[in-house]
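> run fold Neprosin PEP catalytic domain-containing protein
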Amino acid sequence: MKGDYSGPWTKQKNENNTPSSCCYAIQHTTRRQQQCIQTQTVVVVVPKQKPTPLKHSSKLALPPCHIHTNTFSFVPMLLVLLFLVASSLFTPALSHPIVSDSGRRLSPANQTFRPGSELNKLRVVQSYLKKINKPAVKTIQSPDGDVIDCVLSHLQPAFDHPELKGQKPLDEPERPKDKGRNNTDIVGDSYQLWSDSGESCPQGTVPIRRTADKDILRASSIRRFGRKPRRSVRRDSSGSGHEHAVVFVNGDQYYGAKASINVWAPRVTDQYEFSLSQIWVISGSFGHDLNTIEAGWQVSPELYGDNYPRFFTYWTTDAYQATGCYNLLCSGFVQTNNKIAIGAAISPRSSYGSRQFDIGLMVWKDPKHGHWWLEFGNGLLVGYWPAFLFSHLRSHASMVQFGGEIVNSRSMGYHTSTQMGSGQFAEAGFGKASYFRNLQVVDWDNNLLPLTNLHLLADHPNCYDIRQGRNNVWGTYFYYGGPGRNVRCP
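> ok
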C-alpha cells in the first residue's frame, strides 16, 4: 500500500510537508563493475541511487561480480582450512576481548580460537548453505546488499519437508468476505527495495533472499540461526527480556486476522536485540504446546546484518523450542508469489512529521483445505503454512494479537534504548507515533469482522505504551511504541 492516503484522516498531515526522502541515492559504477555486469549471465540491478544508511545500521558489502553461486568455492575454502591448520601448529589458542555494537564485551569462551572447533563450524555452515540456498534461474542484486535468487517454485525449501516432497503449490483459496466496509487500500508496483528498479522474478519462480555465511556466523549459535530465542511465552513473565505493547482478543474461535501496519525504521542498539511490529495468530495453552503464526516487519541486526525494516514471517508449534523458523529458513511455509521476497527490506518507510507508509497483512484459514494463507496488500497472495505443521492451529486459533515487541538484553546493566514502532509514545499521534489500523478477525464462516472487546497490554508502559481508538475511516486502530530507556524507564 504505497502512496498518499485519501480520506478524512489525511487532514492531520502538514500541508507544507515536503515529500519524504525515501531511501534513494545515486550509485556510481566503476569500469570494473560495469564489465562485471556486462559479462555475467545473471541479472544485476544497478540502482539509480544508493540507499542512505540508517544512523545505526551496518552497511552490507556488495558481493563481487561472480555472485551467481549457491555453493562454496572449494579453492577459497581449502585455503581457509590450510590457514587454520597451520595456525594450530605454530600458534597457541588466543583470546582477545571483543566489544559488541552496544559496548558490551562478549564472553571470552566465544572468542578463543580453537582450530578444531572452527573447522567443524565452517563445515556445518557450508552444509547448511548448500541445503538452504537453492539453484536460481535468475539473480537480482538489491541496492542494500541483498542477493535475491529466483528459484523454481517446486524447488523452494518448503518442499524439502517429507510431507511435501513431490507436491506443487496449491491453487488460490477462497478469500474472506468483508461485509463491513469497502477496501480502499492501494497496492503499488513496488513494495521492497530490491524491486524498486523494476526487476522481478519470472512466473513460475519465487524470490528468495540468499543466505550468506556471514548471516549464520552472526547468530548467537549456528543451531539457533533463523529462530527466535527460547523463552517464556506468558505475557506476565518479565524475566525473558521480551517486552510488548499489544492489543488482543481471546475467548472465541478465530480463523484469521487482518490489519494495516505503519512501517518505520526503529533504532536497535544491540546486535542481539530486535524490534518488530506484527500480527500473532495463536492457539494452545501458553505452555510448551503453543502454536503461533506470525507476520509483520522487523529490524534485526543479528538476523539480517543491518537496521532496515524487513517483511518477515514466523511459525512454531512448541513455543519456540525446536520447531519453526523465520521466513524460508526451514521447510514449512510454501511461497506462491513471484513479487515479494520474505526477509527483504521494505521500501519506502515512514518519516517523522511527513509521509506515512503502511502495509496490509491478512492471515486466514482456507475453509476447503485447512491451510493458513498469507496476503500482502490488497489481494497479493504470498503463500501458506500447511495445516499438518500444527497441532492446535490445525482447527482454529484461540487468540489473535496485534502490536510491537522488542528484546531488552540489559547488556549495559540498564534498560535498552532500542525503540519500538517509531520510537515515540502513543500520545504523539499521527505522523509521529506508529499505528495499526482496520483491525479485523475472520469468523467460522470466512467473514471479516471488526474487532470488539479488545484487551490492551503494555509490559512496561514507561518504556513503550499503547492507546486504542475507533473511527469510520480507520475502524478499530491503535498507536503504540516508545523510546525505551528514558528518565521514567531506567
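Residues 125 and 213 are 7 Å apart (CA to CA).
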